[in-house]
Write a structure and sequence with these properties.
The chain is built from 14 helices and eight strands. With about 325 residues, the chain is α/β, with parallel strands linked by helices. The protein has one domain: Rossmann fold, CATH 3.40.50. It has an eight-stranded mixed sheet, sandwiched between helices. The termini are far apart.
Length: about 325
């Protein structure tokens, strides 16, 4: 009888030897990450959290959100693994500036072509942040739910506090496979009726698949358009979806610049408003109390600015 590997494919002698080697390498890699000079991660004694970053509609900033949340959490001292599950449309490596260091992908692990430690890329700027890239040219059906679950289980063994999965847009098989290992979700949308409708559909599918801890990020908010009633306020979006708000990210042309540089907004020496908003959303995600910031009207009180520019006037 043909045996199968942990990731669901046929197993041969080379793969058996590879698994033994992988266990040893994973142990060494865990030691490497645990030995990282952390700011405060170990002080919290947190258990790992697997969070899928998803959306219904493409182009709403889901991957940008994953990169900035992940980097922000790592800067707070936690060990973070970012998993790109968007098969065929890999972009997370570009946003992090790690595209030239991708030698192996999650698909190679699933197919027994490499070990986890060979595919996992540690960021040189923040060594407690790691990326696992996905293939650019494989079909979504090549990865099953079991594959994804086993892959994330292996990553968990390395001692990460947060595992963020960058989910494919849409609601097809790639979405279903990507959300399989997650216990929590962050839905990214924009204040557009089409994006909101798709986000609502995704929220229902998450609940149907047993993911009830869901939070909302409203991206590309334009305060000037809200004031003219040309755009829904964040409060409007939140009330339509009925999902707790994690963050409101203003429209920012610096996103294009940071993407081209392969450097998340939160690493800019001079933080923009959107960079600060991402950092605050990351702090709320890890359980810290924080507020929404608007710096365009310094003469107004923080709560008043929040109401007027992000949640709409009462």
């Amino acid at each position: 009888m043909t045996e199968t590997t942990k990731f669901g494919g046929p197993e041969n002698d080379n793969q058996k030897a590879g698994e033994t080697s992988a266990l040893l390498s994973n142990s060494a890699l865990k030691t490497e990450f645990l030995g990282t000079n952390l700011v405060q991660g170990d002080k919290h004694n947190v258990s790992e959290r697997v969070i899928v970053i998803t959306s219904g509609k493409g182009g709403v900033g889901k991957t940008t959100t994953t990169a900035n949340l992940g980097m922000s959490i790592a800067r707070l001292g936690y060990r973070v693994a970012l998993i790109d599950a968007d098969i065929g449309l890999r972009n997370l490596d570009l946003l992090l500036g790690l595209e030239n260091r991708v030698l192996y992908t999650a698909m190679d692990i699933v197919e027994g072509q490499c070990r986890l430690d060979q595919a996992l890329i540690r960021d040189k700027r923040w060594k407690n942040l790691a990326l696992l890239a996905i293939s650019k040219n494989r079909q979504k059906y090549n990865v099953t739910r079991k594959n994804m679950q086993n892959l994330i289980d292996s990553v968990k063994e390395l001692g990460f506090h947060f595992i963020l999965i960058d989910c494919p847009a849409g609601i097809d098989v790639g979405f279903i496979n990507a959300i399989a290992p997650a216990q929590e979700a962050v839905i990214v949308t924009t204040p557009e009726i089409t994006a909101i409708r798709d986000a609502d559909r995704v929220a229902g599918l998450l609940e149907a698949n047993g993911i009830y801890n869901v939070k909302l990020i409203v991206n590309r908010v334009r305060p000037d358009m809200i004031e003219k009633n040309d755009m829904m306020s964040v409060r409007d979006v939140q009330e339509m979806l009925g999902i707790p708000l994690l963050g409101a990210i203003p429209e920012d042309t610096n996103v294009i610049i940071s993407t081209n540089r392969g450097e998340p907004l939160v690493l800019n020496k001079k933080l923009t408003l959107s960079g600060i908003a991402f950092e605050n959303a990351a702090r709320r995600l890890i359980g810290k109390q924080d507020y929404f910031i608007d710096l365009t009207s310094p003469q107004k009180g923080m709560f008043q600015k929040l109401q007027e520019f992000f949640l709409g006037e009462e």
